[in-house]
Specification:
The protein has about 300 residues and is an alpha/beta fold. It has helices at about 55-60, 95-110, 125-135, 165-170, 185-195, 205-210, 245-255, 275-295, and strands at about 15, 35-40, 70, 75, 80-85, 115-120, 140-145, 175-180, 200, 215-225, 260-265. It has one domain (about 10-295): Arginase, Chain A (3-Layer(aba) Sandwich), CATH 3.40.800. It is built from 8 helices and 11 strands. The structure holds manganese (II) ion. The site of manganese (II) ion has 7 residues, from loops.
Length: about 300
């Protein structure tokens, strides 16, 4: 496997730098604030696989975007960030993959960088959240998703992507999880969403809930199926009735007022969308999160 790093600062065997790089990124961690990495894994995907191709597709199309974000009035060219490539993972069962993700995220944190992970399926998030919550025990978690992902197990696996948030919650000492505008799940999951007070029906509701937590470290996990299938058809479990760019932009404004310390963008399955617009949307979400992570 190729290794382009010239760094003695960390274990470079954790990452593979074959393939494209996200626009504007560096390959050396010196002077960087944010560490981007991909996890090309779709081992538990229940309906339509293909998220293993997500990180590469996001990088490929990123060069078609501007580096400047008018909403944030920030430019990626002014933000030194590293694209570490893909985490080297074994295919098959999720447990060793999640352990590897935790190890890789830990390495990114030890470099003094804020991690941004590109999936891959949603089950990988618990590995990243575990590492970030170890550094920030008061971490607050915000989830964008069509699905509640609160199952204890699914098809015999504790680490199916349908259990992603259940596993993340176990890694979150504060228990402060906010689930934004979830629109699909079991009756039991919705009962829990309501009784726990974690379901935020709108960005405005989230704004109010986060207001007293200002200053706390925040991690945002973006399952791209939160967006409407009309604008993001390239995902394995599409769910009609979703959201659009202005809704995400509203969230970006909200996150600007908070201390974002990590995040992920998961569940892009680029081969399910021949037009390629899903990957472009995912790359733009990535740009917003990079700029938020690098900004405050
Ligand atoms: Mn989902």
């Amino acid at each position: 496997m190729a290794n382009l790093f010239d760094s003695t600062l960390f274990d470079t065997s954790l990452f593979d730098t074959d393939g494209a790089i996200y626009m504007g990124a560096q390959r050396a961690p010196e002077h960087c604030r944010v560490g981007l990495f991909g996890v090309p894994y779709d081992g538990t995907t229940s309906f339509r696989p293909g998220t293993r191709f997500g990180p590469a597709a996001i990088r490929d199309v990123s060069s078609g975007l501007e580096t400047y974000c008018p909403q944030l009035d920030r430019d990626l060219e002014d933000l030194p960030f590293i694209d570490l490539g893909a985490v080297e993972i074994p295919f098959g069962a999720p447990e060793p993959v999640i352990a590897r993700v935790q190890q890789a995220t830990q390495a990114v944190l030890e470099l003094g960088l804020r991690p941004l992970m590109l999936g891959g399926e949603h089950s990988i998030s618990s590995g990243a959240v575990a590492a970030v919550a170890k550094q920030h025990p008061d971490l607050v978690l915000v989830q964008l998703d069509a699905h509640a992902d609160l199952r204890h197990e699914w098809l015999g696996s504790l680490h199916s992507h349908a259990c992603a948030m259940r596993r993340c919650l176990e890694m979150l000492p504060s228990g402060d999880l906010f689930q934004l505008a979830i629109r699909s799940g079991t009756k039991e999951e919705f009962k829990e969403l309501h009784s726990s007070g974690r379901l935020m029906p709108t960005v405005d509701a989230l704004r109010k809930a986060l207001a007293p937590l200002k200053g706390r470290p925040v991690y945002v996990t973006v399952d791209l199926d939160w967006f409407d299938p009309a604008v993001l058809p390239g995902t394995g479990t599409p769910e009609p009735g979703g959201y659009f760019w202005p809704d995400f932009a509203d969230l970006v404004s909200l996150l600007q007022e908070h201390r974002l310390v990590g995040g992920d963008v998961v569940e892009l399955s680029p081969q399910l969308d021949g037009s390629g617009i899903s990957a472009v949307l995912a790359a733009k979400v990535t740009r917003s999160l990079l700029l938020l992570l690098g900004g405050g």
